[in-house]
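S1.2 Input.
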Amino acid sequence: MAKTHFKGNPTNTVADIPAVGSQIPDSTLVGIDMSEVKLSDYAGQWLLVNSFPSLDTGVCAASVREFNERAANLENTVVLNVSKDLPFAQARFCGAEGIERAHTASAFRSNFGIDFGVELADSPMAGLLGRSVVVVNPQGEVTYTELVEEITNEPDYDAVMEHLGA
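S1.3 Output.
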């Protein structure tokens, strides 16, 4: 299990985030149209997986907006935002915010949080996803990870973009 913090208090995840060099777990999520979304659907492209607790928080919403602007236009790159928000709420948020280039999917009935080691095991946020970024190359290999040290902080956008060559 990995450690992060929520409002300064230590909290654990259920496992470790995928290691750089490992193959990405092929989790199945639920798209905003209620269709199945498999991570293997993005094989052959760079995949930036941005996971977070809920779109109903300012920091989570900011990360979706920022990656939509900064990374979703990169060649052969897909941004996939993942939370346990219901697909209806995700669709409403994306429509209201003009999130058109990044993809969004729900882990509400998925093992994604366990497979990626980002499901929070304790704290008031137990059961939700921790804030993390995982970048996967077109061959399905993890090339970058960040489990944000403090859930109420945004990820290191510059490091992610530098990693993607932007």
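S1.4 Remarks. The beta strands are 3-6, 9-12, 28-31, 36-38, 46-51, 77-83, 103-106, 132-136, 142-147.
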